[in-house]
Amino acid sequence: MTHSLDPKGPRASARVLGTLHAEGTSGVVRLQDRYDTGPVDLWDALTDPARLARWLGEVHGDLRVGGEFEAHFLASGWEGTGRVEECDPPHRLRVSTRSPDQPDGILEVTLTPDGDGTVLVLEDRGVPLEQVAAYGAGDQIHLEDLASYLAGGGRCEPRSRWQQLHGLYERLPVTPADGA
User: Fold this and answer.
1) Would you list the DSSP string of 49-112?
2) Has residue 46 been placed in a domain?
3) Would you say residue 98 lies in a domain?
């Protein structure tokens, strides 16, 4: 998969990056996309607080394995804390998350070289099953903001984009997580 270079912009498309899954009583959002940059640069965009501030939000704290951090994501408004559970640069990152108004979760990112680009897989685990489509739309906005940042663009207007994507994610089946 590659991001659209449609003259209307990548957000003009109705492309859905994710799949939705059930894992016990909670949901899992799995998104995959290909970025036109190498794994080292993509890893840096995902883990350097200065770069994160340009597309995702503010992240402060200890970003080493076992370290804890605080974060505020701009597009979704998510605020909470996290703990770095696994970090294997530039291939795999796993963090646990906590927020006062949402269930605890796990975010896993895997990067795989693909020619002159990199395939990113994001899994967002522990989301409320009844809200898995909403989380899918929100997670996709973050990945689209990452693609726009890497191409020299800015973040989207999250409310209208979320409404567009949420309608599409609501139509997706929720399948067992075994296939995720």
Assistant:
1) HHHHHHHTEEEEE--STT-EEEEEETTT--EEEEEEEEEETTTEEEEEEEETTEEEEEEEEEEE
2) yes
3) yes
The DSSP call for residue 16 is: -
Domain containing 78 — which CATH number?
3.30.530.20
Range of the domain at 133: 20-174
Domain membership flag for residue 6: no
Q: How far is CA 108 from CA 87, 128, 160, in A?
A: 10, 17, 27
pLDDT of residue 102: 86
Please give the mean pLDDT across all residues of the chain: 91
How confident is the model at residue 76, as a pLDDT?
86
Distance (Å) of CA 61 to CA 48, 54, 55, 68, 175: 11, 17, 18, 6, 36
Tokens read off for 98: 């906590």
Residue-wise pLDDT tens digits, 45-84: 999 999 999 999 999 999 899 999 999 999 888 999 999 9
